[in-house]
Amino acid sequence: MNIFRSLKYRNFKLFFYGQSISLMGTWMQKTAVSWLVYRLTGSAFLLGVVTFVSLIPSLVLSPYAGSYVDRHNRFKVMVNSQIISMLQAGALAAMLYFRFYSMTGIILLSLLQGIVNAFDVICRQTLMIDMVDNAGDLPNAIALNSTMTNLARVIGPALAGIVLSTLGEDFCFISNFMSYIPVLICLYLMKMKVVVNVKPQTSLWEELKEGFEYISTEKDLMSLIVLLSVSSLFVLPFNTLMPIFAKDLFHGTAKTFSLFESAMGFGSVLSAIYLANLKSNNHLVKTIIISGFLFGGSVLLLSFSNILLLSLLFMAISGIGMMAQSAAINTYIQAHAAPHMRGRAISYYIMAYQGVMPVGSLLIGVLAEVLGPKEAVAISGCIGILSVLVFIYYKKRFFAPPVPVTTLEIKKL
After folding, report:
1. Sorting pLDDT into bands at 50, 70 and 90, what band is 2?
2. Does 143 fall in a domain?
3. Residue 94 lies in a domain
4. What pLDDT is attached to residue 413?
5. Better-predicted residue by pLDDT, 239 or 101
6. Which of 209, 218, 234, 252 has its CA 20 to 30 A from that of 227?
7. Is residue 133 part of a domain?
8. Residue 116: which residues within 8 A CB-CB, separation 6 or more?
9. Which residues make Cβ contacts (< 8 Å) with residue 104, sequence separation at least 6?
10. Which of 116-120, 188-192, 277-281 has the lowest mean pLDDT?
């Protein structure tokens, strides 16, 4: 089938299968952590804090991580990051297994995972081109990777909902620890020929400055990164409040909360499958605009819904919009960034997508405490719609269609 054409490459296939299992464990743990924190504290603010510390390293460290990855063997960095993540998951599992309910411990371990992810995510994104032999299959590989991530977002929370209500919270954390075993096996079976860039004579600080200057002068890339930053800062954090929607507004349980996560993940999978089937990247900007309206509009409608099934529908639509927007921007950047700048360009994408979200999670937690969860989510949706309108205005005035990086240039990596 056309949608799975990237799986014909051995390295990408091993990566795909290993990560599929690991990410399900990761989402089980994320769901369990959110539920545990709110069950123990009943605080929307602390929910925001835990999300904040798990993602803030992507904001602070992404430019450095991008330059670091450009200087070193990306594959080895990714293997090491997976090992550290496994140890972090093991420490969290042990803490919960022995009923050591420490918010400080949860926050510190979440911070550690965030630091590791700042490097790991950039490695995984920039290694896509090394896992497929034909550069023409790069968009398909990116879309399949997104499909895998979001399918895990459907299955992981669904499993977590069952496990939380039957076997307990600690089993979710143990499952995540065990899920790193298959991914490490698959990584060691891969035969990667990664071209390591010759370490430049310039300092790392000069490289960071060079990367920022490059992004700043490429107006098309910069405008997309700003749009994604606004979306991640003000819109995507609405998901932080879903435990409150499930428990307080709909008087549900952990299973109800898992339905919210799974609904958004299901929409994301549908969106990723659609993107994987695209044979051309000629309409990426149009996809970004439409998906932005879908994302902001569905979040706004969610804030007015008092019916559970309708709320789940809006969650699914928000997943479609969020996935299409972020994946299309990712593909655009990888296809149009200069090869020697790809790691640094992707680092700014990661900073925009994941780095600013923790700040938004903290803000929406405070906003929910002051105004209420529904009001906070409504504001998020309105900002999402407004940001797309501003982007359209900017595009019409300043957006010049760039010349994409050719297949030959990509293969020179």
Report:
1. low
2. yes
3. yes
4. 40
5. 239
6. 209
7. yes
8. 81, 84, 85, 88
9. none
10. 277-281
Percent of the chain exceeding pLDDT 70 equals 87
| pLDDT confidence band for 205 (50 / 70 / 90) | low
Give the CATH number, domain containing residue 98.
1.20.1250.20
Residue 381: per-residue pLDDT: 93
First to last CA, the chain: 28
Check: pTM over 0.85? Answer yes or no. no
Residue 318: band (very low, low, confident or very high) from pLDDT cuts 50, 70, 90: very high
For residue range 148-178, list pLDDT tens digits in order.
776 776 677 777 777 777 777 777 888 888 8
Structure tokens at 61: 């460290």
* Containing structural domain, residue 240: 2-190+202-411
Structure tokens at 202: 């310039």
3-state secondary structure the chain: CHHHHHHHCHHHHHHHHHHHHHHHHHHHHHHHHHHHHHHHHCCHHHHHHHHHHHHHHHHHHHHHHHHHHHHCCHHHHHHHHHHHHHHHHHHHHHHHHCCCCCHHHHHHHHHHHHHHHHHHHHHHHHCHHHHCCCHHHHHHHHHHHHHHHHHHHHHHHHHHHHHHHHCCHHHHHHHHHHHHHHHHHHHHHCCCCCCCCCCCCCCHHHHHHHHHHHHHHCHHHHHHHHHHHHHHHHHHHHHHHHHHHHHHHCCCCHHHHHHHHHHHHHHHHHHHHHHHHCCCCCCHHHHHHHHHHHHHHHHHHHHHCCCHHHHHHHHHHHHHHHHHHHHHHHHHHHHHCCHHHHHHHHHHHHHHHHHCHHHHHHHHHHHHHHHCHHHHHHHHHHHHHHHHHHHHHHHHHHCCCCCCCCHHHHHCC
In a domain, 195, yes or no: no
Q: CA 11 to CA 9: how far, in whole Å?
A: 6
Q: Domains in the chain: how many in total?
A: 1
Is the pLDDT confidence value at 411 over 50?
no
Residue that is written with structure tokens 């994320």 in the block: 30
